[in-house]
């Protein structure tokens, strides 16, 4: 019997909602909309917040408490591994318990910091478990199995709030929408228990293996309850320590409501929604707003940031192949042939596996170091330390240390970009600044916590020094504006925090306390301006007045001779003759058996055509060139790549965009006879009758002819600039290298010319290169000139004549074409006002060519529209 029930996916409204949800923009806007709503709701309560007092509360925290809460936070995060042990047992994964714990720590800590609705944790689990040999189907089932389980524990805690185990009513009354959120979360657990007994759940979440056992269900809910309970206790412990007036159960209840709000927002770690609701709840419970915010910051650092940094190190170690890691550990064995001093000096280099700590993270640590220095300088120090420092040192030394700390902080913020790019020069300067900053942040007020952090970051950089291999990186206006703006922003923040904390802090100090070591508002302003200027002057001198780090030198006469000999021996391609223009660098590799001609455009090295040399060496040559480009933080791109080499480019990580097609005329079949060639035949006969003559001149050319051609070229350009790179231009030394076709009128005056470009394939192919004519030439001039040149090539034994590219020809024809190629198709069809794309294609079609596609090969990391603009700029400028 045929059922009349339609599946739910068949309803139009469901399809519409699913389509909306699949859009990436919606996934981003939904959390932002929720966050905006919460901030709007909480705007009035945040008006009384004082940043200076909050920072002062943080600096007064007891060191022993920080150690205790740090250890408890690590235990709370470690408890989240219970999820992975449940799926390890349920799916019978052949993974050791220690590896399970590491995978859990990495996945959970990254998900806490970055995970939208658990996607980050799911992705990392997939990568890590697959690396251990677990089949992808099993991994997917395990990840899907976890998705409905993780919030069951929070649902249990929501029932605790409903039955008044902890007081949350004031928060709910202030924001009625939280009633719905609380009841929705509470009802999730019974719905989950009902759902997991259904056949659909067994199909989707249990790999089709029937209903879950009650042991697995209980263990899953227990793991979830353990996660949320320990996280809440961590928050509550911090809250009761900083807010002595609030009991543990009251702070815990606020955490539950805030966690529900954060979960609804879908933001990573509930950032925004969790913090606002927790802050409002603590204030309603009677807490001071500044101390309440201090609770949130401490919780974020100890429960999220510190475990994530540990997870980052574990992830770096996991990504090293096991056999390589063992061999590296073996290298750390004690070698009795070395004395103790050699051991101390070489120790970090032996632990090379530690160098795999993500350089991206190191850059962010350096950025944080700069912010820490500025924050430390902006906030008042502890009185007993300041008194002791004043007796130990002197007030001028403390003030000087303060100003130097600000300068170093600004420079570290800027240098963090160089650390992320792995630049050796940035590493050396950063190490010096970190060590110097540790000294001066200590002497300005005995702030040993900040000094230890800077020394720790310096140690991490030193251990990872082998990862810094780049000689330099492109420095353009975009980078200067970004990092100049960022340094201005952090300096402004230093001034606002410092100046803003001065007055409120002074009110809390006894009138008899000596205040000479405290700065007033104007002192902060002077220090901010002076430090920013001095930091940028120093960085400018350091980076701009250094020895030039050139990526190569343009070929001189000796290298041109070497290139000629290479092309005669190894052969070339259709663009090889362009290399004699002298505007492209030559990268020689594989014992000079392969050469790659390239030019630089911003942060790209753009190779013209395919690498020249034996095809079996091309792949290795490309890899070596990629490493060469990477040393300068540049990207290798190949322009006008031919179909013959696409598989090689693909193997080396390149994508493709079709640039157009090259018109190649097979000379053995070229003829002017027949009806289809009547237009060309008529043009040739007409020009012959009218006394026009064709002549092919071989170099060397005399000066008079050069000047006559220059005159034609200048008139043809009509003030326009010559183009370059992939196009020839009027350059006397270049014109002297190949034959030139001349078209003369009946009086013997040259009215048009075209230069030839040999392909260096032993006389098989010749191309037309530079074409210029006077503006008053009769219609059909180019038809006649091209026809005569093709006949000359055929008579001189060539087999193929290259008419050149038809840009964007046959691009984006398929319905499955890339969006960029479809856009290029529209430009080809409707861009005739700017460039005669279709007219050029029709003109070359007269000669019955065979069309061969040409491609742009570019890495996936490159944004194609930006690359296109860079190519346009490169071709539009000419290097003499």
Automatic annotation (TrEMBL):
It comes from the Bacteria. Residues 566-858 form the Phosphatidylglycerol lysyltransferase C-terminal domain. Its EC number is 2.3.2.3. Pfam families: LPG_synthase_C, LPG_synthase_TM. It is a multi-pass membrane protein. Keywords: Antibiotic resistance, Cell membrane, Lipid metabolism, Membrane, Transferase, Transmembrane, Transmembrane helix. Belongs to the LPG synthase family. Catalyzes the transfer of a lysyl group from L-lysyl-tRNA(Lys) to membrane-bound phosphatidylglycerol (PG), which produces lysylphosphatidylglycerol (LPG), a major component of the bacterial membrane with a positive net charge. LPG synthesis contributes to bacterial virulence as it is involved in the resistance mechanism against cationic antimicrobial peptides (CAMP) produces by the host's immune system (defensins, cathelicidins) and by the competing microorganisms. This is Phosphatidylglycerol lysyltransferase. It comes from Paenibacillus ottowii.
């Amino acid at each position: 019997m045929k059922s009349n029930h339609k599946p739910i996916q068949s309803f139009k409204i469901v399809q519409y909602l699913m389509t909306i949800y699949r859009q990436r923009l919606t996934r981003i806007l939904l959390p932002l909309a929720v966050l905006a709503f919460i901030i709007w709701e909480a705007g009035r309560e945040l008006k009384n917040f004082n940043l200076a007092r909050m920072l002062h509360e943080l600096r007064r925290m007891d060191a022993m408490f920080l150690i205790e809460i740090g250890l408890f936070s690590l235990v709370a995060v470690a408890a989240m591994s219970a999820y992975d042990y449940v799926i390890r047992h349920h799916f019978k994964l052949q993974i050791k318990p220690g590896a399970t714990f590491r995978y859990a720590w990495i996945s959970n800590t990254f998900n806490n910091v970055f995970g939208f609705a658990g996607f980050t944790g799911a992705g990392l689990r997939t990568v890590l478990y697959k690396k251990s040999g677990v089949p992808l189907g099993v991994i997917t089932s395990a990840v899907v199995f976890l998705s409905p389980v993780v919030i069951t524990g929070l649902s249990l805690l929501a029932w605790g709030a409903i039955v008044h185990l902890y007081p949350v009513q004031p928060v709910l009354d202030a924001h009625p929408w939280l009633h719905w959120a609380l009841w929705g979360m509470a009802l999730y657990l019974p719905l989950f228990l009902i759902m997991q007994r259904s056949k659909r759940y067994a199909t989707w979440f249990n790999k089709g293996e029937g209903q879950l056992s009650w042991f697995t269900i209980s263990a899953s809910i227990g793991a979830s309850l353990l996660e949320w309970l320990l996280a809440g206790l961590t928050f509550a412990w911090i809250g009761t320590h900083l807010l002595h007036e609030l009991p543990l159960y009251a702070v815990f209840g606020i955490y539950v409501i805030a966690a529900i709000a954060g979960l609804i927002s879908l933001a990573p770690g509930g950032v925004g929604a969790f913090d606002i609701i927790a802050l409002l709840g603590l204030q309603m419970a009677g807490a001071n707003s500044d101390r309440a915010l201090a609770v949130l910051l401490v919780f974020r650092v100890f429960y999220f940031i510190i475990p994530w940094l540990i997870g980052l190190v574990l992830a770096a170690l996991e990504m090293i192949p096991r056999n390589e890691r063992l061999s590296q550990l073996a290298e750390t064995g004690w070698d009795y042939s070395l004395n103790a001093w050699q051991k101390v000096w070489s120790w970090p280099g032996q632990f090379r596996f530690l160098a795999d700590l993500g350089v991206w993270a190191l850059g962010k640590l350096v950025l944080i170091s700069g912010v820490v220095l500025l924050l430390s300088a902006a906030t008042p120090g502890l009185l007993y330390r300041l008194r002791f420092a004043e007796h130990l040192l002197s007030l001028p030394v403390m003030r000087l240390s303060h100003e130097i700390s600000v300068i170093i902080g600004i420079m570290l913020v800027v240098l963090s970009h160089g650390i992320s790019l792995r630049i050796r020069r940035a590493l050396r300067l950063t190490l010096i600044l970190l060590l110097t900053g540790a000294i001066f942040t200590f002497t300005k007020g005995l702030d040993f916590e900040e000094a230890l952090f800077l020394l720790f970051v310096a140690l991490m950089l030193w251990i990872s020094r082998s990862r810094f291999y780049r000689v330099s990186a492109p420095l353009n206006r975009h980078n200067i504006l970004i990092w100049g703006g960022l340094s201005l922003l952090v300096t402004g923040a230093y001034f606002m925090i410092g100046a803003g904390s001065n007055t409120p802090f002074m009110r809390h100090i006894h009138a008899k306390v000596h205040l000479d070591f405290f700065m007033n508002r104007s002192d902060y302003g002077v220090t901010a301006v002076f430090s920013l200027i001095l930091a940028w002057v120093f960085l400018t001198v350091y980076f701009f007045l250094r020895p030039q780090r050139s990526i190569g030198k343009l070929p001189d006469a000796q290298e041109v001779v070497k290139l000629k000999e290479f092309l005669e021996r190894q052969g070339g391609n259709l663009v090889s003759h362009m290399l004699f223009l002298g505007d492209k660098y030559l990268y020689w590799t594989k014992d000079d058996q392969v050469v790659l001609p390239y030019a630089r455009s911003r942060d790209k090295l753009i190779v013209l055509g395919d690498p020249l040399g034996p095809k079996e060496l091309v792949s290795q040559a490309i890899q070596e060139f990629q490493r060469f480009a990477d040393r300068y933080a540049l990207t290798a791109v190949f322009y006008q790549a031919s179909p013959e080499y696409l598989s090689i480019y693909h193997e080396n990580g390149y994508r493709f965009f079709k640039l157009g097609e090259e018109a190649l005329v097979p000379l053995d079949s070229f003829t002017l006879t027949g009806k289809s060639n009547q237009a060309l035949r008529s043009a040739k006969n007409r020009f012959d009758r009218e006394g026009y003559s064709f002549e092919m001149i071989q170099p060397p050319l005399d000066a008079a002819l050069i000047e006559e051609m220059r005159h034609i070229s200048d008139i043809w350009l009509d003030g326009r600039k010559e183009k370059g790179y992939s196009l020839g231009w009027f350059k006397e030394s270049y014109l002297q290298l190949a034959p030139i076709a001349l078209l003369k009128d009946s009086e013997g005056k040259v009215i048009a010319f075209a230069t030839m470009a040999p392909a260096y394939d032993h006389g098989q192919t010749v191309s037309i290169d530079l074409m210029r004519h006077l503006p008053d030439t009769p219609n059909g001039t180019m038809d006649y000139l091209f026809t005569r040149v093709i006949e000359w090539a055929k008579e001189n034994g060539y087999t193929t004549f290259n008419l050149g590219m038809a840009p964007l020809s046959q691009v984006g024809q398929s319905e499955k074409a890339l969006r960029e190629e479809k856009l290029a198709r529209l430009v080809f069809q409707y861009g005739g006002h700017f460039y005669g794309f279709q007219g050029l294609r029709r003109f070359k079609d007269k000669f019955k060519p065979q069309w061969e596609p040409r491609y742009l090969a570019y890495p996936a990391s490159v944004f194609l529209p930006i690359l296109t603009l860079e190519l346009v700029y490169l071709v539009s400028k000419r290097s003499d």
